[in-house]
Description:
Chain A is built from 20 helices and 16 strands. Chain A is an alpha/beta fold. Chain A folds into 3 domains: 2-21 and 149-251, Glucose Oxidase, domain 1, CATH 3.50.30; 36-146, PtsI, HPr-binding domain (Enzyme I, Chain A, domain 2, Orthogonal Bundle), CATH 1.10.274.10; 256-549, Phosphoenolpyruvate-binding domains (TIM Barrel, Alpha-Beta Barrel). In chain A, strand 7 (216-220) and strand 8 (225-228) form a beta hairpin. The relative contact order of chain A is 0.10. By secondary structure, chain B is an alpha+beta fold. Helices cover 37% and strands 29% of the residues of chain B. Chain B has 3 helices and 4 strands; from the N terminus they run βαββαβα. In chain B, strand 2 and strand 3 (41-44) form a beta hairpin. The longest helix of chain B has 15 residues, at 71-85. Chain B is globular and about 35 Å long.
Amino acid sequence: xxxxxGKGVSKGVTKGKLYFFQRxxxxxxxxxxxxxxxxxxRLADAQAKSMDQLTALAEKCREEAGDESAVLFExxxxxxxDDDYVESIMDTLEEEQxxxxxxxxxAGEQFAAMFAAMDDAYMQARAADIKDVTQRILNNLxxxxxxxxxxxxxxxxxxxxxxxxxxxxxxKSKILGFVTMGGSGNSHTAIxxxxxxxxxxxxxxxxxxxxYQGRIAYIDGETGSLILDPDxxxxxxxxxxxxxxxEMKRLLxxxxxxxxxxxxxRKMMLYCNIGSPExxxxxxxxxxxxxxxxxxxxxxxxxxxxxxxxxxxxxxxKVAAAMNGKRVVIRTxxxxxxxxxxxxxxxxxxxPAMGVRAIRICLNRPEVFRTQLRALYxxxxxxxxxxxxxxxxxxxxxxxxxxxxxxxxAELEAEGIPYNKDTEIGIMIETPSSVFVADALAKEVDxxxxxxxxxxxxxxxxxxxxxxxxxxxxxxxxxVLRALKMATDAAHAAGIWIGICGELGADISLxxxxxxxxxDELSVSPTSVLPLRAEIRKSIAKxxxxxxxxx
Amino acid sequence: MKEFNYTVQDPLGIHARPAGLLSKLAKTFDGTVVTVEKxxxxxxxxxxxxxxxxxxxxxxxxxxxAEGENEDAAIAAIEAxxxxxx
Lengths: 551, 86
């Protein structure tokens, strides 16, 4: 038996083949070709595969995200077959008598350089498309599956760590669980796993060796252990746990359709956090009463250029309409810090968590902000959309955001485009400064939502991405809980509601504290809704105390 | 040989999407070569990347030529395409 101990970041027990995430190999070497015709045949094969994938992607996009993004993939398909591009590859093959990978790589570089050298920002950005298409053909030549998983059956995905853009492209139907060498409970892999309701282990370290590829493994996302070749005793324990887990699932099913109310009649709004329109299904299946945090970053992270107003509108509208009148809080662009997007062309920062990120980018780049706000207001005509601004530290920022909203509404009014003028506006409470001036902020907005991950990081001066802060990174720290209380008191004094949309919201051990503080809404991963509902329905709000706020 | 001149109206110029559609269209006329010329630089309309490489922006005037057995049909279709998409 081999036992690898990491940190459990998403609960559940599962068994499956270990599969190591494959990153495209960018290191392509020139090799002499023995059979030029065979190389040409491989190219034709890779082109055909690429065309099939792109056609399928375009179709999928047309259904899910609208015409604009579908056109991107159709253009990519045209590049694959482009005469000049193919001719350039063929020329290299003939002249150099080399492997086709090298010829494709060279053609990609040449054409990308040609576009990059043009004196037009739009054309320069097309260099990224050429690189993307070239990488796709190379992946198909080298048998690297798109989304990093080349397996017919679902697997336990192993990786050093996954970047946000990588998690977005994964084929979710092929993943039973995650295990990563690095990362933490707040990493994107962990968040994705919790949304999907599958087990995940982070920080497995060097013990996770690539030679284990293909071996059957058991992972326990609660204890954080990964086991190969379990002995009988361990196997029995794992099976027992798996059965209990299934039993628990059946019990939770009975919670569907029940109200989120304590025994003494205190109501809680139990909402969900989502990262893309695809996650709405999970919200509905788990009976979430609304969406408390719709992260809009997926639109920016998955693209090679700024998403257009129409692309964004389609995505927001889809979620707003699917939620059928239930509240959908959409957070404006929150990139920077750990979420970087190449085409934003941000300066490298020594300390990006405290740099130009989130609302700071939006206020510095009014055009990017305006595009998103227009899309959001247009979507407001199709459901109960609420707009939320992240990383607020000052009252002037909120006023500037509100002015931008007013301007966008006036534009839509003039253009005769429908929107809801009473769209709620809220802010994230995730910086200590926003807590200190919460009374003034509360007078400006319709709601607060506390981002506990960042609030903990900034309050405790602990980097949330760091693995080794251990006991110093304590989300239960009285300082964090007192900050929650201060913000709640300020919100209620101004007559607005306050929620928690960070991971802490799903922490059942804190539910009595949240009830005592007076939190109105909890927004959690869809899979946390039913366990939390079961707990709320057992609670008595008036007997809950603030003891955890004591030091 | 048939030809026409056209001043591009599209704010993005001859960008990826219309260039792609144009190259597709240009390939449908057998035995006929369609070219796009700007400031003495020429690209075949069927060559997507070269065509985009001309960097034709809004306000630029291009000369489009068709030569070959289907030149009449080609020039009519391509002129209609420019008016509608560019």
